[in-house]
């Protein structure tokens, strides 16, 4: 586990936003990404009969749709023990292989930090 209080304030912010999205929408995952201009994009899991997206892929899509051209960081709040390869690929597509992705539990405690690469 990672001490969340030791996180950079901007990283702590995206974890908090991801946690709030998960709780507010009662979805399995919440995610937030920060672009290279400091803007954040927050999303929850999308589970429609015709469209299923993880929270992280939804947040990346929202960033792209809003004109973001790069990412600085991403955070996911989930009960999962690891991140799906497709989620990391979406972050890598926009942010590059070195983009950090924080995975936190429902309580907001960061369990791991990986790169999108």
Which descriptors apply to this entry?
3 helices, two-stranded antiparallel ribbon, single chain, five-stranded mixed beta sheet, 117 residues, alpha+beta
Description:
The chain is of the alpha+beta class. 33% of the residues lie in helices and 30% in strands. It has three helices and seven strands. It has helices spanning 9-25, 55-65, 85-95, and strands at residues 30-35, 40-44, 46-48, 51-53, 71-77, 100-104, 110-115. The strands form two sheets. A five-stranded mixed β-sheet has the order 2-1-5-6-7. A two-stranded antiparallel ribbon has the order 3-4. A hairpin with a 2-residue loop joins strand 3 and strand 4 (51-53). Helix 2 runs parallel beside helix 3 (85-95).
Topology:
Layout (H helix, E strand, L loop, with lengths): L8 H17 L4 E6 L4 E5 L1 E3 L2 E3 L1 H11 L5 E7 L7 H11 L4 E5 L5 E6 L2
Parallel strand pairs: 5-6
Antiparallel strand pairs: 1-2, 1-5, 3-4, 6-7
Helix pairs in contact: 2-3
Radius of gyration: 13 Å
Give the class from helix and strand content and strand pairing. Answer: alpha+beta
Q: Main β-sheet: number of strands, strand sense, barrel status?
A: 5 strands, mixed
Helix content: 25-40%
End-to-end Cα distance, whole Å, is 21 Å
Instruction: Please give the count of helices.
Output: 3
Mean pLDDT: 95
- Total number of strands: 7
Assess the beta-strand content as a share of residues.
Answer: 25-35%
The shape, in one word, is: globular
Low-confidence stretches: none
Spatial sequence of strands, sheet with the most strands: 2-1-5-6-7
Helix-strand string? HEEEEHEHEE
